[in-house]
């Protein structure tokens, strides 16, 4: 690993730390301010039962939307930075860009894809909820659709991203 | 008896409405721009092959310069509006400071990204 690659790796570690720290803030604030949804096995069991606790499920979709949004923004800052190397020196850009093709970075890209897909589909759901004036039951069904589409498209994309690792 | 109607005409209400619409319209735009960008750099081309030669070819076309410029502007608009609400929710004491951090970061990314596109479009080759 060369020095520019190491610096990129450090910057990426900072991105990951910011995402984790913001996730902790969101979950802690949820517990303190929003009526106490503790992250526990009981909560997960409650959320997993279809139609059992719709408001709670939508609240967690909202938290996930926030955390994924912050994650995408922080990654964008890094990404614009590394692409900017292209005007400074193409060789330097290519050197740092090698990291994007490495196995750990490809795994991170799969995470990026899932975050991007969830944020996109859930955002479309939020627009639909307002435009079509969906109620709690309909918007919960839409949320199941969002989760299904995220997993389906995410797995399909992962095949392309991770394919060269196994080829 | 007169009902108390929510305030819909003051400057603050108009600004909130504009921010609400802008957040959603930019989001709809980004659905196409960002998913398209991800598909091009990860599905139709492998990430390892998106090197400087790939950028040379792509930025030789006005379509992709325009695509990337619009994507950057829409993303930053969307991010600032979204994070503005996040800051309002999570930092009761240091709102002004965090808003400063947000605007500085977004401004830097915008300046860097746009300068990059201008240099690539005019003096890069």
Automatic annotation (TrEMBL), chain A:
<dbReference type="InterPro" id="IPR000701">
    <property type="entry name" value="SuccDH_FuR_B_TM-su"/>
</dbReference>
<feature type="transmembrane region" description="Helical">
    <location>
        <begin position="142"/>
        <end position="166"/>
    </location>
</feature>
<dbReference type="InterPro" id="IPR034804">
    <property type="entry name" value="SQR/QFR_C/D"/>
</dbReference>
<keyword id="KW-0479">Metal-binding</keyword>
<dbReference type="InterPro" id="IPR014314">
    <property type="entry name" value="Succ_DH_cytb556"/>
</dbReference>
<feature type="transmembrane region" description="Helical">
    <location>
        <begin position="6"/>
        <end position="27"/>
    </location>
</feature>
<feature type="transmembrane region" description="Helical">
    <location>
        <begin position="101"/>
        <end position="121"/>
    </location>
</feature>
<dbReference type="Pfam" id="PF01127">
    <property type="entry name" value="Sdh_cyt"/>
</dbReference>
<keyword id="KW-1133">Transmembrane helix</keyword>
<keyword id="KW-0349">Heme</keyword>
<protein>
    <submittedName>
        <fullName>Succinate dehydrogenase, cytochrome b556 subunit</fullName>
    </submittedName>
</protein>
<keyword id="KW-0472">Membrane</keyword>
<dbReference type="InterPro" id="IPR039023">
    <property type="entry name" value="SdhC_prok"/>
</dbReference>
<keyword id="KW-0812">Transmembrane</keyword>
<keyword id="KW-0408">Iron</keyword>
<comment type="similarity">
    <text>Belongs to the cytochrome b560 family.</text>
</comment>
<feature type="transmembrane region" description="Helical">
    <location>
        <begin position="60"/>
        <end position="81"/>
    </location>
</feature>
TrEMBL record, chain B:
<protein>
    <recommendedName>
        <fullName>Succinate dehydrogenase</fullName>
    </recommendedName>
</protein>
<feature type="transmembrane region" description="Helical">
    <location>
        <begin position="100"/>
        <end position="121"/>
    </location>
</feature>
<keyword id="KW-0472">Membrane</keyword>
<feature type="transmembrane region" description="Helical">
    <location>
        <begin position="21"/>
        <end position="44"/>
    </location>
</feature>
<dbReference type="InterPro" id="IPR034804">
    <property type="entry name" value="SQR/QFR_C/D"/>
</dbReference>
<keyword id="KW-0812">Transmembrane</keyword>
<feature type="transmembrane region" description="Helical">
    <location>
        <begin position="64"/>
        <end position="88"/>
    </location>
</feature>
<keyword id="KW-1133">Transmembrane helix</keyword>
């Amino acid at each position: 690993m060369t020095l520019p690659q190491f610096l990129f790796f450090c910057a990426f570690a900072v991105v990951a730390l910011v995402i984790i720290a913001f996730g902790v803030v969101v979950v802690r604030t949820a517990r303190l301010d929003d009526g106490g949804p503790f992250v526990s096995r009981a909560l997960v069991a409650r959320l997993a039962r279809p139609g059992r606790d719709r408001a709670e499920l939508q609240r967690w979709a909202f938290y996930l939307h926030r955390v994924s949004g912050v994650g995408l923004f922080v990654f964008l800052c890094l990404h614009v930075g590394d692409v900017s190397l292209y005007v400074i020196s193409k060789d330097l850009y290519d050197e740092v860009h090698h990291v994007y093709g490495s196995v750990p970075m490809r795994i991170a890209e799969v995470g990026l894809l899932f975050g991007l897909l969830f944020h996109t589909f859930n955002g479309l759901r939020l627009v639909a909820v307002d435009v079509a004036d969906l109620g709690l039951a309909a918007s919960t069904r839409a949320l199941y659709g969002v989760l299904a589409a995220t997993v389906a498209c995410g797995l399909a994309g992962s095949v392309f991203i991770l394919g060269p690792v196994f080829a | 008896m007169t009902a108390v109607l929510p305030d819909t005409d003051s400057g603050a209400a108009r600004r909130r409405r504009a921010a609400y619409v802008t957040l959603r319209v930019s989001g709809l735009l980004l659905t196409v721009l960002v998913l398209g960008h991800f598909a091009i750099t990860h599905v139709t081309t492998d990430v390892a092959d998106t090197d400087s030669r790939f950028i040379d070819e792509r930025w030789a076309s006005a379509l992709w310069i325009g695509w990337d410029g619009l994507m950057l502007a829409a993303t930053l608009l969307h991010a600032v509006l979204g994070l503005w609400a996040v800051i309002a929710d999570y930092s009761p004491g240091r709102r002004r400071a965090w808003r400063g951090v947000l605007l500085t970061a977004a401004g830097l990314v915008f300046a860097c990204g746009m300068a990059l596109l201008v240099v690539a479009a005019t003096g890069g080759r």
